[in-house]
Amino acid sequence: MIIPMGVQDQRQVETRQDVLVYTSAAVAAPLEVTGPLFVKLFASSSAIDTDFTAKLVDVRPDGYPQNLADGILRTRYRASRMRSGFLTPDQVYELTIDLWATSHVFLPGHRIHLEISSSNFPRFDRNLNTGEDQATSSRRQAAAQTILHDSRYPSHILLPVIPR
Q: How many domains are contained in the chain?
């Protein structure tokens, strides 16, 4: 099930302990982002199957964070949507989250937020983190997620910046 997102205030979401928020410096000049968006994560999980979600957010100078684009990756389908494969717990994987496409201008004084989490419910279905059938199983388990971001594991967002 995918629920239409629409523009929403992200302040409450960004205070949650299970949402990691990266923040840019304030934009000095208009910054146009037009085209496909991707997040590359180097991540590990204690679960054999889990989700990673990403959301691009425009933060106005008054602090209002407005969602622009989001996406999800169910890790069992990280290599192919046709063939599933479970994770080895605590092993680091390079994961790509497709945030689809956007066309947006970040105005001077605005900041860019990137939210990373393992859930964006009810927009995207829940993941039980067990590898069992999502539709029929009721057993679930918590998953400990680790996002790496250093020179060896350069997690990042790919923004299609259009020169002005």
A: 1
* C-alpha triplet 40, 68, 60: angle, nearest 5°: 110
Closest to 127 measured CA to CA, from 45, 13, 7, 67: 45
- On whether residue 104 sits in a domain, the answer given is yes
Nearest to 110 by CA among 47, 33, 57: 57
**Res 41: pLDDT:** 98
- Which residue numbers in the chain have pLDDT < 70? 1-5
Closest CA to 98 of 84, 77, 113: 77
Would you state the pLDDT for residue 101?
96
Q: CATH number of the domain that 98 lies in?
A: 2.60.120.260
Residue-level pLDDT at 121:
82
What is the CB-side half-sphere exposure of residue 38 using CA atoms within 13 A? 7
Q: Where are the beta strands (DSSP E) in 7-135?
A: 20-23, 31-45, 51-59, 65-74, 93-106, 111-117
Domain with 126, as residue range(s), is 11-132
